[in-house]
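Render this sequence as a predicted structure.
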Amino acid sequence: MAFDTLIQKIKGTNNVTVAGLDPKLDYIPAFIKNAAYEQYGKTLMGAAEALFRFNKGLIDALSGIVPAVKPQCAYYEMYGWPGVKAFYDTVAYAKSKGMYVIADGKRNDIGSTMECYARAFLGETAVEDETFTAFGADALTVNGYLGTDGIAPLLSICKQSDKGIFVLVKTSNPSSGELQDQHIADETVFEKMGTLCEQWGAQAMGASGYSAVGAVVGATYPEQLKLLRQKLPHTFFLVPGYGAQGGAAKDVAGAFDQNGMGAVVNSSRAIMCAYQKGGYDEKDYAQAARDEAIRMRDEINAYRG
């Protein structure tokens, strides 16, 4: 299944880092924006072109160092159809470089609507008697609040297309506990959602011992992260919250199994914007991102065991 593929890429790079590609125009060096605006003007198309050029440089620098990237859909959708094209081009370019791609869309619906999301991001779309790959990501983040009705349509696509999903379980944001820490009988909501991930994943187990149903568990809650690792032995984790949100390497240590596997740790701003803090020339932004990714790799590896 899909996380077997991700695990092989982690082993190949000795790195559990995911580079979040969540670009704002403020993050992009002026020379890239100016070139895009000269071609397309200060328009939605110009902005989208700047996003893709920025991402392309990052991917070139990070491929072979980082096993995966995670573009967040909202940063592209805000620029309309040109932004969606930049998202598509980013996914395609990262995959051409051998990187695993997690589409961060947090989709949430049921039945045929969720099947449409699944086909768009993970599967194939039929046009009469022809089929096409729409976005072609390897995994998709989803909200499981609608229960099995919202997950089942994804599972069939995951099994058909060797793809995976990451279900929101214990998120990294400060107010996550308003709902996720509340109790249902003797379990918190986040524990219950994790238990459901194990149940859903039983239908789509991989050779690695992890299923195609992963969980999003934040680095900002290390005790809950450690608890969930113990309770969810077949659930692969996507861990946000490292770096700019305050999570440190010691905080993510509980995400890993006895083999130092079982999770990937996302960093977005700290990698994308490394050139703004490290005394680099803006034209060296990609090298700065590479340097930060290597530093992060080494720091986390010291805690992986």
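Summary. The chain has 14 helices and twelve strands. Residues 68 and 112 are 29 Å apart (CA to CA).
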